Amino acid sequence: MTQARVHVGGADPYDVVIGTGVLGELPAMVGDRARAVAVVHAEGLPEIARPVCGALEQAGYTVHALPVPDGEAAKEVGVLAGLWSSFARSGMTRSDVVVGVGGGATTDLAGFAAASWLRGVRAVLVPTTLLGMVDAAVGGKTGINVPEGKNLVGAFHPPAGVLCDLTTLMTMPREDYISGLAEIIKAGFIADPRILDLVEDDPKGAASPHGPHTRELVERAVRVKAGVVSADLREGGLREILNYGHTLAHAIEKAEDYRFRHGHAVAIGMVYAAELSRLAGRLPAEVVRRHRDLLTSVGLPVSYAADWPGLRATMTIDKKSRGTTLRFVVLDGIAEPGRLEGPDEELLAAAYREVGR
Ligand SMILES: NC(=O)c1ccc[n+]([C@@H]2O[C@H](COP(=O)([O-])OP(=O)(O)OC[C@H]3O[C@@H](n4cnc5c(N)ncnc54)[C@H](O)[C@@H]3O)[C@@H](O)[C@H]2O)c1
Ligand SMILES: O=C(O)C(=O)C[C@@H](O)[C@H](O)[C@H](O)COP(=O)(O)O
Ligand SMILES: [Zn+2]
Fold this sequence. Notes:
45% of the residues lie in helices and 18% in strands.
């Protein structure tokens, strides 16, 4: 099967390679200055990590396989500290490389370990989930959670390359796959309406890695993300659009002690942001309905019940906030993202009433 190559521009450009049999590209992405490579992988994925390590060993690198807890449990300071110790024991120098293999949680951790080790070593990411491929591994946002909130500690550290092997999607649990679909649909609402049409025409196909448009959906979402982060790596302005739905989503994830899937929280968060847009007089009701219909059709949640004051308090520390001013990404239409700055408390609560069960 042919491979697609999406270029990410900016000060540290790199490619995202999408297809099957992409591991052959790994040594070139790691580069010839490295001696040692730390392969940080989700511990539940030995079958996927093994060929990655094998390809690197065959290319002559000394490989240190470093398993980390599966999923969100990886994004903890204790796990990160464990990686620093392992890097030290393995003698990882500035010319050596970290390869992250796993879902978005694993690549967020691996990327931040690379960003912080010796003040920054090269990272190559091999995402193995839909969400990892279309969002987390691309764009250089790395980080971990703290008890006070999601992704509150991290760094912008673009990878040297991203390898998306679509065959790894075949073993994904259905709910995790659908979670990734939320970020694809997000890319549709903020920038690429063709994504929305593809999902609407065949929601069953979209919710399966065997669907007829899997590759196109992945590629389209990667292109949206690549275009945005090429222009604004450090989230000076434009990049905020990728955060559509995330202000409430991150509060939900914290309220659920990070046991709620990210994409599921983003789905609810997008409906909330769409309701905010409507109540602010900026978005027709039919577009809000389109959010609910589309997300529901693939099995994503669109409502949530928890105490509003707690969620509202957590949202204060969202990274888009400036001082005491809350800032939201909203929509003025499909593919027309805008900002809502300092909305009044009644508007915030009214939008939540539309989402709350
Ligand atoms: N850095 C970014 O720009 C960015 C963007 C979006 C999301 N994120 C982060 O990504 C994380 C969510 O990522 P995710 O949805 O990939 O979840 P995840 O990393 O938690 O993975 C979900 C589960 O799937 C398992 N898994 C991974 N690949 C598999 C495969 N091929 N077959 C079977 N099981 C597999 C994992 O081990 C884990 O148990 C969140 O922490 C979120 O904050 C980061
Ligand atoms: O890449 C971005 O920028 C995003 O906002 C993408 C989001 O999907 C992602 O979940 C990101 O990690 C959220 O960033 P944060 O800065 O709000 O933690
Ligand atoms: Zn996200």
